[in-house]
Design brief:
The complex is a heterodimer. Chain A is mostly helical. Chain A contains eight helices and no strands. The chains are: A mainly alpha, B mainly alpha. At the A-B interface, α3, α7 and α8 of A face α3, α4, α8 and α9 of B.
Chain lengths: 218, 221
């Protein structure tokens, strides 16, 4: 029991590290939602070249693990551009590059659920393409996408555990550093694992609840 | 910025070995993941409530664990507490197996659920045992349904196997880190590794597509 007490006293520091985990995840999700919208517009454009660009982006950028991304962005990109970015920026860029591809796929799948007749109806009413998208299509699509985006947020949150390798003092980093000093790896890492499991469980419950609430009534 | 890929080219056997290691971890981890996942599915589908609860809890726990944390926990945590010092290779394979088992359990569940309950009833009416119903009627159909999603899990396993660098296994990313530190060529090292990984992933996803199409066209009536 004694060995767990050390973890308990260190808990505030670890929970403080959690704020970086959430900061990185939330900002990455927000940026991915924005860039994902751009990628999905490319996929749905009339020009073949733009469609190919969007397709290639998704194929290429979702094939690396977040670990490769943080190394690539923090060491390689920084080295070649000479931009001295701080670890948090590098982490956000990495997770955004990766998740933009996934969010674009989510958008693509929810846009497929929208009946084609709505575009025709909007065209018949004389609405422009921009108006059709912004007041008819996207509000419906985003509503369907909310639970899926929340699931993606869970994935980002879990992926963000890796950012410790470039020196972001997130919860895993803080716990691991303290564990290396005290040789209590098992206790510290188990504590972090429990925190992650609880957060993910709550969020996935929330996502399932939202999915039921937001589903369109037949 | 002048790029010099000759240092990387001089080291290409190491990179290829690294890629081989990654594929090896992915394959072995995936096979174990399928086995654990199937056992988990049996627990979820069993009539015993305790087994249901155990399987459900296991899946929830595994789903909540980041891969990186799971690997650290196996490699450092378990070793420090119980003296069970697994090697880096064993740790990454175990981590991939555990991580993928949550996915495969879910895939087996949806696979079995997609089969009409009437078939089980028909089997019972013929006087077949539960085991025979599963082996001769359900499993041959389920295996065809679950192959494409399982292959997608394999792709996830391959992505996750790059985490092995964390526990100092000489796989692709570890080789890149080594080259970038010794030759001070981080950009060339990491970009080469990224290109190798992306190319492998593209080939893997083409294979998945091909298998999917093959299964679709040879579907029984």
């Amino acid at each position: 029991m004694n060995s767990w007490y050390a973890v308990y006293t260190h808990l505030p520091a670890m929970l403080y590290g959690l704020r970086f985990t959430f900061l990185i995840s939330i900002v990455s999700l927000a940026l991915s939602m924005f860039f994902g919208g751009i990628i999905v517009s490319l996929l749905r454009s009339r020009s073949g070249a733009l469609r190919a660009t969007g397709f290639l982006y998704i194929q290429i950028f979702r094939s690396l693990s977040p670990y490769v991304y943080v190394l690539l962005v923090y060491f390689a990109l920084a080295g070649v551009t000479g931009w001295k970015m701080d670890p948090i920026t590098a982490a956000i860029i990495s997770l955004t590059l990766l998740n933009t591809a996934y969010v674009a796929e989510i958008y693509r799948s929810v846009l497929l659920t929208i009946d084609g007749g709505q575009w025709e109806a909007a065209a018949a009413m004389g609405l422009s393409r921009w108006k059709t998208n912004s007041i008819i299509i996207w509000p419906q699509a985003l509503r369907t996408a909310i639970p899926l985006l929340l699931n993606q947020f869970i994935v980002i949150l879990k992926d963000s555990a890796i950012v410790g390798v470039i020196g972001v003092k997130d919860i895993v980093y803080v716990a691991n550093a303290q564990a290396s000093i005290t040789y209590k790896q098992f206790e510290y890492l188990t504590a972090v694992a429990v925190i992650f499991i609880v957060i993910v469980f709550i969020l996935s419950r929330l996502s399932a609840g939202l999915e039921r609430r937001l589903s369109w009534k037949q | 910025m002048n790029l010099d890929f000759s240092v990387i080219l001089a080291q290409w056997p190491r990179l290829l070995w690294g890629l081989g290691y990654d594929l090896y971890f992915a394959i072995v981890g995936f096979v174990f993941g399928c086995i654990i996942g199937f056992i988990c599915y049996l627990g979820l589908a069993s009539r015993t409530r305790a087994l249901n609860a155990i399987s459900y809890t296991y899946v929830q726990i595994v789903r909540g664990l980041p891969m990186y944390l799971l690997l650290l926990w196996i490699y450092f945590g378990v070793a420090s507490k119980f003296g069970l010092a697994l090697s880096g290779t064993q740790s990454i394979i175990l981590a991939i197996a555990i991580m993928s088992s949550a996915f495969t359990a879910e895939i087996f569940r949806t696979g079995y659920n997609s089969i009409d309950a009437g078939q089980v009833e028909a089997g019972k009416a013929l006087g077949l045992s539960d085991y025979r119903i599963n082996r001769s009627i359900l499993f041959p159909q389920v295996i065809r349904i679950v192959i494409p999603p399982l292959l997608n899990v394999f792709v996830i396993c391959f992505k996750a196997s790059t985490y092995a660098a964390v526990v100092a296994v000489p796989e692709l990313i570890f080789a890149a880190q080594d080259i970038s530190l010794n030759q001070y060529r981080p950009f060339e090292a990491y970009i080469s590794v990224a290109v190798l990984l992306i190319a492998t992933m593209l080939v893997l996803s083409l294979v998945v597509k091909a298998v999917e199409n093959r299964l679709n066209e040879s579907k029984w009536a």
